[in-house]
């Protein structure tokens, strides 16, 4: 136990205990296929060197999950970088810069590209290096391997070979796929945890073949040798076919002897195993696939903007080239020179009037290089940096940290941050996601009498629906029970009833049946007790939370299971006659394990008095038909209680027993043992038939009811998400009644909501299933589903009809099968999208994934959330997968994009971080294109001003460093720190989230608006600068400005304008943003000073231009001030008018915050109500329930007044 307390592990001989569970699954497989294609592997156990001698090429056990190695990093990484069209374009431009066509030097063109590429490759390299470190840690773990003469030596995992015999000790992982030879248990069983493989935390039991059980010591392997022939490496975790040849005998191997790499040995001191698959041949590595590549909708749209800019770039380059060709041709007409100063009679091919077409083509190439600054070269790397930092803030958010489990929120990918702010539909699992998956024994029915006074979450919701009571009133109704519960809460036990607690059950009229009921719970299970040596308190290792709850309940009510031996179970129980607690020993004869097909579990035990009992618990659907006529005395009452428990959202099991006479048991035992030892193909069927024959003529004891509680904050979270306009679908494997009641408990359903139920439980379909053939059943079922869907669509009024009525769609698994067929699924989707909430019951994992895929057809962002291995398909199919790091293992988390500890954290993840990330990335990308359009258009205008000569207005290094130095950091700061409203206001005004769902901030209208602003700014900058410096003397000696001075002035204005535009766009200033914005401007002036001081051979036209020409000239500073002010005025005016007369929702909240009224609940309610359109009315959640109730009361009042 935690805290260093030592446990006494109880070692058992469990071959008898697991007689049914350990029957060799897959034993009916065709072993004749051994040696054929797909089944050709030969392993010489304890002779690993022999494989090389016989030319078997088996994988090493060293694994690598890295994307690159030293040889492939450079070529593969470069290939990845230049797959991006923008990077490839810059590469081509850089190569062309090496030719005389370039308008700038090759170095100035290639350096920024190299910086961006190296930075991105560095990021990739660091991520891959981390993976390599993880691989190194894994490959260098230590395990004991037989090295001859019975000596086992510590060996690194990577040095293990096929055929090695290894010894694995308790709580260690298996380093390869092994065949279990023996364990410290006499019958060769071991307990295995497969959480890393399938996400399940319950322990699996494996058992060695009887022929190898005697291999208990290290020296047993001195002369040991076998030959194993088996299937080739494959990805199937649950099947295995092989044979073992030893001492002239052949033994069949099954999955029961297979121990898989990355599973862990538990509750077993040690095992010996033979290595059959190593490294990438192991089943876990065969299953290792890259998760599906997910890209956000904004990122996909960004690619379209790049293509738009490149198309625009090509068009203006073509336009300039055509005009250049025409003007060049006109320079020399009939021997007359038009622009004589260009000396057209003595020019190179690039300006030759006689070859104007060729000159025009060369100009096109020059223009394509010159206008490349329309494309932001640092866009991709900047966005990646911003997203990584955003993910870091998500991970560090203390408000999404779950203290009880010590689990923070984890952004497993940063690619989808902004997608969190655009979620339209959430598809959620129920068990472990909305509920805790921590079962509590809360009620039971014994001999027709209901016991247990606890109140479930569903019952509270039902009371609100039926009686109109609020939650606080319900709590006060049961306050007496809470006051009586003085003892601390016991995990798994929430039962309150003075009639049978504290030993009071002995005074009940049905005390014998109560004794048999709890005795059955204490005996009929597969739990392993663990006793603390200090406190002597017993805890239990159970295969499921339900199983643990039953054993804990029996213990708390006086029937404590505390010890297990090879073939006995020990229980401390109270004698109803003497009222004394006694230790009783039950001889354990057989356990017939639970399976999904059997839906029940039985144990056969012998009492100290000699009676042989069969104790059975299972689902009501299979248990009631196994009752003897004399054992049905309380059947009707029990069924009624079961229905009530189901209505309360509880899970139920029926308990029954029978007394076996000696002869009957001997007959069964012989039949069962014969079936077990059968080698025929129908061995499993014979074993199940034997078990079926004894589980008859049962006497009913009663039923149990356990609650899987709603997680803390689930109803409130769903209410907030619903207010944000997010639709929530529940996809669960539970039956319809339970799912509906859970829906009411978490406010997905409410009183007055019209339920459209699609089901195949109609009498005619049931009758057809009994009598008709499969084809007729399928045809009739599909038609029934289509009819129900069409009827549902007709019930819902069209959008043109104003209606406050809300609808819920509830569909079961059978109906869902037909609803997802190609010719029906879009009608089903149409119906579902018109409903306020959707609940899919009895859904299989595949159906969950298919429903998710279908919802994506609506072109809205989908988010799937789940906690189990059965949710993996759904998580990977959705645009965003969120895994709950709960009690069902880590399979869902490993397949997810984001991991949270509780469903309630989804509220903050979406409404706060999602909204912020969407807004930041949207504004960031728009600003990126704005600043590059501004810069690019000034280049174009100057080139047009210079007759499309191909001469840039700016120095080479001015061009190169614009995106990399002078404008890069402010936009990164905006992407990381900006907030339109605080986290508290994001939660108080959930309607704000719709800005992302409707993509208001990254619509084409918005994007083109930013670009238009850039074009206007560029025109104003160019016009004012050329006008001011064109013919005006700006120095004392009357000199006019040259190209060098004009270029620096224009560049200065561009740097000022785009950085001031950033300052106007920021909503939430931090010291970092101030440093980056004003620091970028300061760095420009420092660069001018430093670069101008460099030798003129390098600085060229920038040599001393600032110190000698511009800085002393007052006109330079005045023009800069005037141009910046005049250029920013149009956008400032537009923003002021828009905020004053056409405010967006965040503008309204900001104004209320300025007035210090934003946090007033009444102001928030009124503002949200006015902002919400009729199509966004709340249909689900606590708020919707209250709104509906208020509307109902007001209508009744109106009727009374009219009456």
UniProtKB/TrEMBL annotation:
Transmembrane segments: 88-121, 305-327, 361-383, 928-945, 957-977, 1010-1034, 1040-1059, 1071-1094, 1114-1137
InterPro entries: ATPase_P-typ_P_site, P-type_ATPase_IV, P-type_ATPase_N, P_typ_ATPase, P_typ_ATPase_c, P_typ_ATPase_HD_dom
Membrane topology according to the record: Multi-pass membrane protein
Residues the entry annotates as binding ATP: 429-431, 547, 594, 617, 651, 732-734, 842, 848, 870-871
Top EC class for this record: translocase
GO CC aspect terms: plasma membrane
Homology family: Belongs to the cation transport ATPase (P-type) (TC 3.A.3) family. Type IV subfamily.
Name recorded for this polypeptide: Phospholipid-transporting ATPase
Originating species: Zizania palustris (Northern wild rice)
């Amino acid at each position: 136990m935690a805290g260093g307390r030592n446990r006494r592990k109880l070692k058992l001989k469990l071959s008898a205990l697991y007689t049914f569970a350990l029957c060799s699954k897959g034993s009916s497989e065709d072993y004749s296929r051994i040696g054929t294609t797909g089944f050709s592997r030969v392993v010489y156990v304890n002779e690993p060197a022999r494989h090389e001698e016989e030319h078997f090429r088996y994988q090493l056990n060293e694994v690598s999950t890295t994307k690159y190695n030293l040889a492939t990093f450079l070529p593969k990484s470069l290939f990845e970088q230049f797959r991006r069209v923008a990077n490839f374009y810059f590469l081509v431009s850089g190569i062309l810069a090496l030719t005389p066509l370039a308008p700038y030097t090759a170095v100035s063109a290639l350096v920024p590209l190299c910086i961006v590429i190296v930075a991105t490759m560095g990021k990739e390299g660091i991520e891959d290096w981390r993976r390599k470190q993880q691989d190194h840690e894994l490959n260098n773990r230590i395990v004991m391997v037989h090295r001859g003469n019975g000596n086992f030596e510590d060996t690194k995992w990577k040095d293990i070979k096929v055929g090695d015999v290894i010894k694995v000790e308790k709580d260690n992982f298996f380093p390869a796929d092994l065949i279990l030879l023996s364990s410290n248990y006499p019958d060769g069983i071991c307990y295995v945890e497969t959480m890393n493989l399938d996400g399940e935390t319950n322990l699996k039991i494996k058992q060695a073949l009887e022929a190898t059980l005697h291999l208990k010591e290290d020296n047993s392997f001195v002369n040991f040798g076998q030959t194993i022939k088996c299937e080739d490496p494959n990805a199937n975790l649950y099947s295995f076919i092989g044979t073992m040849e030893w001492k002239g005998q052949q033994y069949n191997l099954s999955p029961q002897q297979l121990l898989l790499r990355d599973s862990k040995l538990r509750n077993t001191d040690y095992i010996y195993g033979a290595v059959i698959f190593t490294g990438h041949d192991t089943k876990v590595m065969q299953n290792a696939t890259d998760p599906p590549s997910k890209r956000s909708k904004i990122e996909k749209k960004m690619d379209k903007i790049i293509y738009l800019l490149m198309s625009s770039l090509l068009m203006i380059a073509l336009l300039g080239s055509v005009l250049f060709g025409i003007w060049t041709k006109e320079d020399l007409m009939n021997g007359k020179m038009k622009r004589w100063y260009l000396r057209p009679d003595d020019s190179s091919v690039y300006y030759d009037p006689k070859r104007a077409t060729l000159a025009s083509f060369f100009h096109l190439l020059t223009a394509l290089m010159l206008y490349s600054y329309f494309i932001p070269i640092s866009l991709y790397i900047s966005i990646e940096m911003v997203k990584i930092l955003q993910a870091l803030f998500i991970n560090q958010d203390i408000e999404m940290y779950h203290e009880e489990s010590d689990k923070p929120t984890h952004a497993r990918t940063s690619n989808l941050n902004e997608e969190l702010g655009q979620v339209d539909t959430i598809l959620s699992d129920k068990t472990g996601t909305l509920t805790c998956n921590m079962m509590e024994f809360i009620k039971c029915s014994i001999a027709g009498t209901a016991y247990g006074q606890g109140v479930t979450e569903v019952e509270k919701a039902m009371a609100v629906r039926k009686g109109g009571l609020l939650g606080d009133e319900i709590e006060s109704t049961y306050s007496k029970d809470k006051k009586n519960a003085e003892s601390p809460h016991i995990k798994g036990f929430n039962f309150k009833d003075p009639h049978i607690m504290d030993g009071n059950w002995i005074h009940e009229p049905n005390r014998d049946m109560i004794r048999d009921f709890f005795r059955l719970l204490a005996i009929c299970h597969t739990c392993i007790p663990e006793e603390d040596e200090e406190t002597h308190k017993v805890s239990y290792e159970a295969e499921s939370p339900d199983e643990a709850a039953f054993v804990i309940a029996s213990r708390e009510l006086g029937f404590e299971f505390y010890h297990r031996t090879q073939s006995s179970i020990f229980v401390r129980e109270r004698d109803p006659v003497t009222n004394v607690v006694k230790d009783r020993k039950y001889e354990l004869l057989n356990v017939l394990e639970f399976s999904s097909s059997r839906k029940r579990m039985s144990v056969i035990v012998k009492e100290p008095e000699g009676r042989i009992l069969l104790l059975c618990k299972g689902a009501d659907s299979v248990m009631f038909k196994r009752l003897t006529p004399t054992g049905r005395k309380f059947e009707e009452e029990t069924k009624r209680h079961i229905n009530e428990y189901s209505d309360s959202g509880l899970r139920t099991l029926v308990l029954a027993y029978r007394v076996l006479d000696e002869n009957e048991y001997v007959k069964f035992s012989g039949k069962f043992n014969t079936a077990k030892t059968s080698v025929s193909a129908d061995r499993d069927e014979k074993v199940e038939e034997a078990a079926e024959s004894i589980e008859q003529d049962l006497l009913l004891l009663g039923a149990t009811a356990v609650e899987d509680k709603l997680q803390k904050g689930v109803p409130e979270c769903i209410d907030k998400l619903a207010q944000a306009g997010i639709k929530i679908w529940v996809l669960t494997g539970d039956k319809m009644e339970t799912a509906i009641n859970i829906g009411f408990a978490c406010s997905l359903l409410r009183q007055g909501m019209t339920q459209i139920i699609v089901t195949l439980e109609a009498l005619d379909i049931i009758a057809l299933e009994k009598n008709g053939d499969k084809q007729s059943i399928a045809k009739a079922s599909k038609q029934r589903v289509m009819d129900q869907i069409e009827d549902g669509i007709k019930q819902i009024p069209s959008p043109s009809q104003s209606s406050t009525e809300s609808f819920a769609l509830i569909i079961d698994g059978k109906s869902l099968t037909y609803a997802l067929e190609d010719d029906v699924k879009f009608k089903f989707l149409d119906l579902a999208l018109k409903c306020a909430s959707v609940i899919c019951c009895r859904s299989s994992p595949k159906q969950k994934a298919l429903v998710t895929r279908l919802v994506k057809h609506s072109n809205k962002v989908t988010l799937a959330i789940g906690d189990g291995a059965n949710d993996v398909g759904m998580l990977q199919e959705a645009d965003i997968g969120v895994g709950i790091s709960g009690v069902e293992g880590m399979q869902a988390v490993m397949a997810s994009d984001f991991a949270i500890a509780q469903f309630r954290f989804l509220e903050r993840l979406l409404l706060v971080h999602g909204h912020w990330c969407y807004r930041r990335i949207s504004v960031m990308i728009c600003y990126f294109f704005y600043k590059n359009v501004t810069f690019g258009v000034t280049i174009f205008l100057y080139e047009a001003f210079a007759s499309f000569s191909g001469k840039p207005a700016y120095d080479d290094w001015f061009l190169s460093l614009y995106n990399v130095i002078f404008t890069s950091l402010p936009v990164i700061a905006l992407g990381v720190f900006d907030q339109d409203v605080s986290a508290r206001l994001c939660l108080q005004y959930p309607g704000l989230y719709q800005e992302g769902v409707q993509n208001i901030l990254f619509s084409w209208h918005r994007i083109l608006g930013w670009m238009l602003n850039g074009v206007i700014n560029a025109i104003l900058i160019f016009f004012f600068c050329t006008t001011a410096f064109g013919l005006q003397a700006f120095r004392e000696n009357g000199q006019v400005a040259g190209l060098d001075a004009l270029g620096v002035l224009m560049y200065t204005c561009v740097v000022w304008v785009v950085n001031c535009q950033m300052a106007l766009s920021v909503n939430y200033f931090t010291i970092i943003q101030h440093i980056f914005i004003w620091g970028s401007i300061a760095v420009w002036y420092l660069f001018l000073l430093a670069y101008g001081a460099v030798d003129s051979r390098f600085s060229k036209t920038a040599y001393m231009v600032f110190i000698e020409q511009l800085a002393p000239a007052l006109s330079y500073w005045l023009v800069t001030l005037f141009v910046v002010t005049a250029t920013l005025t149009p956008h400032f005016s537009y923003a002021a008018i828009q905020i004053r007369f056409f405010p967006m929702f965040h503008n309204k909240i900001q104004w209320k915050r300025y007035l210090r009224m934003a946090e007033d609940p009444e102001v928030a309610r009124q503002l949200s109500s006015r902002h919400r359109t009729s199509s966004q009315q709340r249909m689900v959640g606590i708020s919707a329930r209250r709104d509906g109730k208020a509307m109902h009361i007001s209508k009744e009042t109106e009727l009374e007044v009219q009456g």
